[in-house]
Amino acid sequence: MAKKVQNTATIHERIALCVQFYGDGKNTLFADKLGVSEGNIRGYIKGVVPKADVLEKIVRTYDVSPEWLLTGKGEMKNQIKIEESTNSAEKRLDIPHVSLEIGEGTPYYDADFFGGFSEVFNSQTTVPACNIVVPGFDKATVWCNVTGHSMEPKINHGDIIALRECTVDDIQYGEIYAVVLDTLRTIKILRRGSTSDVLRYVPINPDFDDQEFPTSRILHVFEVLGSIARFF
């Protein structure tokens, strides 16, 4: 039976946990089996974001769950064995990756939600930087960057977020939304406000305060389906 592992906040902490489990707590042992340097592993633990090829090596070498490695959800040990195949598309089915195939994956815009995303998203001429394929996020219509600390540890500074555009009428209280208002952009848990014409914007990080804004100020609203550490 696979071991239950607590949800760790960042990909760096999850890599450290992998080293503890599979490398007996030694960066060198863990790195040697992956074919990377000990310095690389040390960097990933300290804050360097690993590229997709390194994440794929961790998943395949140690049979780690891709979803757990990227998001912290579920169990560390992969529950579905990734079979070897001569078809590269089949081999990478359960591993997040960049796709160059037309119609495969979800558009990713290399723009921060808080600084330029809405302009890029609404442009008729701007094309996505690439498409990305992330298992479990099939309902997303777009990915973009996110900065800031108000939603940590759920959404971390430097993550990429999966969004699906919706309307104010679609809002479910208690869920996370990315909202474009007339003078600002924010990502928060939305709850009922003090009056019927306002919404309360609630951060996860206790160092930040709740705010209220009239619903009439909302220009666009997106459901936040989740976030992962940037892997490319």
TrEMBL record:
<dbReference type="InterPro" id="IPR001387">
    <property type="entry name" value="Cro/C1-type_HTH"/>
</dbReference>
<dbReference type="InterPro" id="IPR039418">
    <property type="entry name" value="LexA-like"/>
</dbReference>
<dbReference type="InterPro" id="IPR010982">
    <property type="entry name" value="Lambda_DNA-bd_dom_sf"/>
</dbReference>
<feature type="domain" description="HTH cro/C1-type">
    <location>
        <begin position="30"/>
        <end position="69"/>
    </location>
</feature>
<dbReference type="InterPro" id="IPR015927">
    <property type="entry name" value="Peptidase_S24_S26A/B/C"/>
</dbReference>
<dbReference type="Pfam" id="PF00717">
    <property type="entry name" value="Peptidase_S24"/>
</dbReference>
<keyword id="KW-0238">DNA-binding</keyword>
<dbReference type="Pfam" id="PF01381">
    <property type="entry name" value="HTH_3"/>
</dbReference>
<dbReference type="GO" id="GO:0003677">
    <property type="term" value="F:DNA binding"/>
</dbReference>
<protein>
    <submittedName>
        <fullName>Phage repressor protein C, contains Cro/C1-type HTH and peptisase s24 domains</fullName>
    </submittedName>
</protein>
<keyword id="KW-0805">Transcription regulation</keyword>
<keyword id="KW-0804">Transcription</keyword>
<dbReference type="InterPro" id="IPR036286">
    <property type="entry name" value="LexA/Signal_pep-like_sf"/>
</dbReference>
